[in-house]
């Protein structure tokens, strides 16, 4: 899809509207954020620009079976989770991440494996394991939330009977 200065994709339009930059009038109690003209748009921190890749891989030639992955539009949250999961993997010798600049939404993940699997495969395996773990966390949280809600409703009903 061609991208020009006047063309806005649906995703960018939605992100701008949610950020309070365009869209219908806002309620007086919720004025749009006061952003200066030189400040970057909020949605630029989460949406990839046209032609921008999410992940770049650079083979580290100084070490065997090592690579540096650059994740764009991500931060410490994903970097730390991936690093922790990679360090639990038996074939990973080294895993660390760094954020080159705090105002740039990207991090670099350096991985070295023992050679039985590639660094790329280690990242894929760690990502799949994280997705599985987060699914379990979501289900457990939802289950606990529903149990608490039911218990609170029962307590409320019991208090109404006593009164």
TrEMBL record:
Gene Ontology terms: biological process: transcription by RNA polymerase II
Protein's cellular compartments: Nucleus
UniProt keyword annotations, A-Z: DNA-directed RNA polymerase, Nucleus, Transcription
UniProt GO molecular function: DNA binding; DNA-directed RNA polymerase activity; protein dimerization activity
GO cellular component terms, A-Z: RNA polymerase II, core complex
InterPro entries: RBP11, RBP11-like, RBP11-like_dimer, RNA_pol_Rpb11_13-16kDa_CS, Rpo11-like
SUPFAM superfamilies, alphabetized: RBP11-like subunits of RNA polymerase
Domain DNA-directed RNA polymerase RBP11-like dimerisation, residue spans: 67-139
Family: Belongs to the archaeal Rpo11/eukaryotic RPB11/RPC19 RNA polymerase subunit family.
Protein name stated in the entry: DNA-directed RNA polymerase RBP11-like dimerisation domain-containing protein
Protein species of origin: Penicillium patulum
Taxonomic classification: Eukaryota, Fungi, Dikarya, Ascomycota, Pezizomycotina
């Amino acid at each position: 899809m061609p991208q020009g200065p006047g063309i806005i994709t649906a995703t960018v339009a939605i992100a701008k509207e949610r950020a309070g930059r365009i869209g219908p009038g806002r309620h007086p109690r919720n004025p749009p954020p006061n952003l200066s003209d030189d400040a970057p748009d909020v949605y630029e921190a989460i949406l990839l620009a046209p032609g921008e890749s999410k992940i770049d891989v650079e083979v580290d030639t100084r070490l065997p079976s090592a690579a540096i992955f650059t994740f764009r539009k991500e931060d410490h949250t994903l970097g730390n989770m991936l690093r922790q999961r990679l360090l639990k993997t038996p074939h990973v010798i080294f895993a660390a991440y760094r954020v080159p600049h705090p105002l740039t939404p990207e991090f670099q993940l350096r991985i070295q494996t023992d050679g039985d699997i590639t660094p790329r495969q280690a990242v894929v395996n760690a990502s799949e394991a994280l997705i599985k773990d987060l699914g379990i966390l979501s289900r457990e949280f939802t289950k606990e939330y529903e149990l608490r809600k039911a218990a609170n409703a029962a307590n409320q009903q019991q208090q109404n009977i006593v009164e």
